[in-house]
Write a structure and sequence with these properties.
392 residues, mainly alpha, Growth Hormone, Chain: A, 16 helices, 79% helix, globular
Length: 392
């Protein structure tokens, strides 16, 4: 159906990707001010503002394919957007930290429906090179919203921490665009019927990969504001600029997904992991904010490469549409599960190896990512050698 979608329809589909980053990452510059509003809350509880939506989002994501089959793709999207708006904007009128977390939970439920649809829509309406391009543009759309939101939050937070949640007002635009311009899904084919009830086991591997990548990636969002504040390198405006540049690099990287795919071919994953490792190494050795900016650029750009490649693998490994929808839902659940467990898992590893501090955390992430890149690269080389020997 690639050739039948208008520009407005493509914008409507891509606009759904605006919302995925607003679940948590874009709010990171405001953490310090939220902490000032609730000084009795510990740093670990404070990070729940970013991570608790995932607690609700993950199980809802796993059920999203069933919801779509029951009420239809478009109705599921519009209902999810309504919940997303209530949870997002509602947090700004919270009278207590507990109420704030409750609204963030509602946001997570809405995001659990909307998140998988960001990629399911692309998989439903596009194929071939157009799908590769749209997948990259979806990553760029996510970062574009992140750039706009983090810049806006940096200014809104100077008025008051409640104002930062006004950024969720963008949901109204996304709702209107999809209510009026999202085309009807293509008619179900015989392949759809053949795929009913099939669950591709490789989707579990892709979901686990996305979860672990997100654990490492999300550590930037949950730590960068507190790290810059700890080092006395600037205020909320500086953190906002760091996050904006971090997202700008991801936006640009997403625009060139097709070219990166041709350049790196099968090695997209190890290259992306290596870039992220170098980003955390820059944070580890940083002695001024310039190194923080550089590390943010590498981490942001690496994520677009990894995000696009994992979702593109769905079309390679899943033959039927039903398998495809399930795989995307599972990968999205893995993505947000990684966000939720990121601070918990990293803290647990630090406790086991008896290390502490932001710099040691960055060194730990760098070391693990370096090993992961090496293992990933070796596995790809062995697979290529095996296929060459077998003449495949």
């Amino acid at each position: 159906m690639s050739g039948n979608t208008s520009k407005l329809q493509q914008i409507a589909i891509l606009s759904v990707s605006f919302l995925t980053i607003l679940v948590g990452t874009a709010l990171s510059p405001a953490l310090v001010e939220i902490h000032k509003a609730f000084p009795e809350i510990s740093e670990q509880w404070l990070q729940l503002v970013l991570t608790i939506p995932a607690l609700f989002l993950v199980p809802v994501s796993l059920l999203s394919s069933s919801v779509i089959q029951t009420i239809g793709l478009k109705r599921a999207l519009l209902a999810g957007l309504a919940l997303y708006f209530i949870g997002g904007v509602g947090a700004g009128i919270s009278g207590s930290f507990l109420q704030l977390l409750c609204f963030r939970g509602i946001l997570g439920i809405g995001a659990g429906i909307v998140g998988p649809l960001a990629q399911i829509l692309i998989a439903t309406y596009f194929t071939g090179d157009v799908r590769v391009r749209m997948t990259g543009l979806a990553a760029s759309a996510t970062y574009l919203m992140g750039i706009t939101a983090s810049w806006s939050i940096g200014r809104l937070v100077t008025i008051g921490w409640r104002m930062v949640f006004a950024v969720y007002g963008i949901t109204i635009f996304v709702w209107v665009m999809n209510a009026f311009f999202l085309p009807n899904p293509p008619a179900e084919s015989a392949d759809k019927e053949k795929g009913l009830g099939r669950k591709n086991i490789s989707a579990l591997f892709l979901a686990l990969s996305m979860c672990l990548i997100e654990v490492a990636f999300y550590a930037f969002s949950t730590n960068i504001a507190l790290f810059v504040n700890h080092e006395n390198w600037g205020d909320v405006a500086v953190v906002s600029n760091v996050v904006s540049l971090f997202m700008l690099s991801g936006f640009i990287s997403g625009l060139f997904t097709k070219q990166c795919k041709k350049l790196f071919s099968s090695f997209m994953i190890p290259v992306g992991i290596l870039m992220m490792a170098l980003g955390y190494f820059s944070l580890f050795i940083s002695f001024n904010v310039v190194f923080v900016f550089f590390g943010g650029v590498l981490i942001g750009a690496s994520y677009s490469i990894l995000y696009a490649e994992i979702f593109l693998q769905v079309s390679v490994r899943c033959r039927y549409p039903e398998e495809q929808d399930f795989a995307i839902s599972l990968i999205t659940a893995g993505l947000f599960l990684g966000q939720f467990v990121s601070p918990i898992l990293i803290s647990a590893v630090e406790w086991i190896i008896n290390c502490s501090g932001y710099r040691m955390r960055f060194l730990l992430l760098c070391s693990i990512l370096m090993m992961a890149a090496a293992v990933s690269g070796v596995c790809i080389l062995l697979k290529q050698y095996y296929m060459k020997r077998k003449g495949i």
